[in-house]
Specification:
Distance between the termini: 26 Å
Number of helices: 9
Strand content: 15-25%
Order of helices and strands: EHEHEHEHEHEHEHEHH
Oligomer: single chain
Length: 217
């Protein structure tokens, strides 16, 4: 069963790999977030991850099954082979990762939706010319500690401009806090993609509920 993309899936989008939950089992963390009501999960295992390729695939398989049982889309970050091997629902591509057109071609016929990171007007303009991109991830909205190679902060004004320009739904990324959710929603963004907001949360159910509330149509 594959998940058909619609913009509501972006409301409460959780992103995490083993490097984001040191000393904890990512399976248990994901189980907590699924119970809290996340609308999508992206497996992004890179950077400080200590896993071998085989361990990463095995972990991804377990996380995929958890998402499937909860009817929540499972998205793989920047790894076409893994996305296909795990029968992922979607794949997310960065500007510096594999070319998005190559990714779209590689997953054609597999019912995977495709997301692309865009942080500038030029990147959004280019994305608007590519059929097959389902959503854009735009930011960072605020300074972020989760990515060593994060783009310059664009702020709410920058986000609003990208949302207006984009032909597809936009999910806001980077330094998102619960307090900033209403302002992000006012830009027209479809939702938020978060790492530390949830991995550091002491009340994930309340925090995920706040995301749902902010982006209810």
């Amino acid at each position: 069963m594959s998940v058909t993309f619609e913009s509501g899936l972006l409301r409460a989008y959780f992103v995490a790999g083993s490097q984001d939950v040191p000393g904890r089992d990512l399976r248990e963390v994901l189980a907590t977030m699924l119970k809290a009501g996340i609308t999508a999960y992206q497996f992004r295992d890179k950077g400080a991850s200590q896993l071998t390729a085989a361990e990463r695939l095995a972990l991804g398989r377990d996380l995929r099954e958890q998402c499937r049982a909860a009817s929540v889309p499972f998205i793989v970050d920047d790894d076409v082979e893994m996305a296909l091997a795990l029968h992922a629902d979607g794949i997310h591509v960065g500007q510096s990762d594999e070319g998005v057109q190559r990714v779209i071609d590689a997953v054609a016929g597999q019912n995977l939706f495709v997301g692309l990171s865009c942080s500038t007007a030029a990147e959004v303009a280019a994305a608007n010319q590519v059929p097959g991109i389902d959503y854009l991830g735009s930011g960072p909205i605020y300074p972020t500690t989760s990515k060593d190679d994060a783009d310059p902060v664009i702020g709410m004004t920058g986000l609003a401009k990208l949302v207006d320009q984009a032909n597809v739904p936009v999910v806001a990324i980077g330094g998102v806090t619960v307090a900033s959710l209403p302002a992000i929603a006012q830009t027209g963004a479809a939702g938020v993609a978060v790492i530390t907001l949830l991995t550091n949360s002491t009340q994930p159910e309340a925090d995920v509920a706040a995301m749902h509330h902010a982006f209810e149509k």
